[in-house]
Amino acid sequence: MTTTAAAAGTRRYTGTYPADPAQVREARAALAELLRDCPLADDAILIASEFATNSVLHSASRDGGEFALRAEVHQDYVRIEVEDAGGAWRDAPCDDGRPHGFDVVDAIAGPRNWGVDGDAGGRIAWARLGK
Question: What pTM did the predictor assign?
């Protein structure tokens, strides 16, 4: 896990975690430390949690792999990325009428402020919050 300061006012974090559900909590805690004084902290941590949970439950990383969490805190915005091993999604039924995963991300970040890039060889889910 690495936290670095870059350009004036910019902080970065990179951490790699085993794709185990218990590790999502560890990733959230590390991100909370980076975002300790950021007004976007709660939203960024929730989005990172959704992305990490998807990696652990639905990607090829779930079979003994890892996921990486990267974050950048700038003066006007926060960018979050979670990278996993990609692969075919293992879908679970969501028929309880509540929003889940990417529905939550879309409601917080808004259209065109988040996405998922990649394929079976690796995938990055990203979001940008702020201006």
Answer: 0.86
